[in-house]
Design a protein that fits this description.
50 residues, little secondary structure, Rubrerythrin, domain 2, 0% helix, 0% strand, binds zinc ion
Length: 50
C-alpha cells in the first residue's frame, strides 16, 4: 500500500496499465516502479494484510 496516497498494489491484479502483469509478486515489481496515483517510489510503500 502506498503510504502517501493509499493506493494498494494487489498481486493478483498487478498493474497492467503500468506494465506489471497480474500475479506479479511485490518483490518482483521493479525498484524504479512508481505509484500510478502519486508517483511515490517503492520504498514509500508498506506491506499490509488485506
Ligand atoms: Zn501513491
Amino acid at each position: 500500500m502506498c503510504l502517501i496516497c493509499g493506493w494498494i498494489y494487489d498481486e493478483a491484479t498487478g498493474a497492467p496499465e503500468e506494465g506489471i502483469a497480474p500475479g506479479t509478486p511485490w518483490e518482483q515489481v521493479p525498484m524504479n516502479w512508481t505509484c500510478p496515483e502519486c508517483g511515490a517510489r517503492k520504498e514509500d510503500f508498506e506491506m499490509v494484510q488485506l
